[in-house]
Amino acid sequence: MVPGAVSPKDKLKLVTEKISSLPTLPKVISEITSLMQNPRTSAEEVGRAITMDQSLASKVLRLVNSAFYGFPGRVNTITHAIVILGFNTVKNIVLTASVFDKLGGKGQCGTFDLEKFWLHSIATGVIAKEIAKKVNFRSSEESFLAGLLHDIGKVILFKFLNEEFVQVQQQLEKEPSLFIDAEIKSIGITHNEIGSWLATKWNLPDDLSSAILYHHTPVLATKHRTMVYAVHAADILARSLCIGAPGDKKIPVFSSDVWDDLKFSRQLIDKIYRDIEYELEKSAIFFQIM
Question: Is the pTM of this model over 0.70?
Fold first, then answer.
C-alpha cells in the first residue's frame, strides 16, 4: 500500500461513520432471534413478540395471506402463520417487512430510481429462490432474502451518503460501467462492503452477509457458497430480463465456477424463466407494504 493511503477497511470505517441516521431494525427482530435459539420456545411466544409491534405484525399477515405464499385459507394470527410456515420463514418475512419499512419507498438521483431498484432486488430474490429449488438447496426462503438484500449497500449510499453517491453517478456518466466498478474508481469502497457492514450491524445471519459481500466475486466466498452462487446467478438473470434497474446498465460476466458448480445449462435457464413468471406477478405484494 502507498504510504499515507487509506486502507479499504479504514475507508469503509470513514464512510460509515458519516451515517448519522442509519436505521436500526425493530427490537422484535433480536427478540425473536433470541427466542428461536431456544428449542423449547413455542409458536405462541414468538407470536406474542411479533404482535408487540402492531404495524409490523399487520404487514407480516398481509404477506402471509398474499398469493406469494399461496395458502388457500385465511391466516388470522402470527401464531397460526408460524405453525403453518415455520419459525425461519416467518422470521424471514418479518425481516423483509422491516427492511421495506426502513429503506423502501420512492426517490431518484441521476439515473438511479429507488422503486426500480427494489423491483430488481425483488426479482433477484424470486430467481435466487427458484435456483435454490432447482439445485435442491434446502435454504430456498433464505435465498429469496439474500437476493432481496444483495444490493442493500446501494440504498445506504443513496439515502445516507449523498456526496459519495453523487460521485458514483458522475463516474457512471463519464464512463458507463458496472456500479461496483464506478464505486471503486470514484470512492474506493463498494456497495458490497457497505451492505456487509450493515448486515453485521443488524446481526443478520452469516449466509446473508456472505451473499451480500461476494455476489460479484463468488469465487472468493469460503463458506455459504451455494447461497452466494445462487444470488450471483439470480442477479445476472434478473438483469438479462431487464426487470427493474440495479443502478447501471451493464450485465456482469457469469462466473464459470458458478455455472459449473450449479450445473447450469441453457435448458435450465429457460426453465427458470418459465417458472418464475407467475412468482414475479405475485411479488407485487412487496410494493404494497412499503
Answer: yes
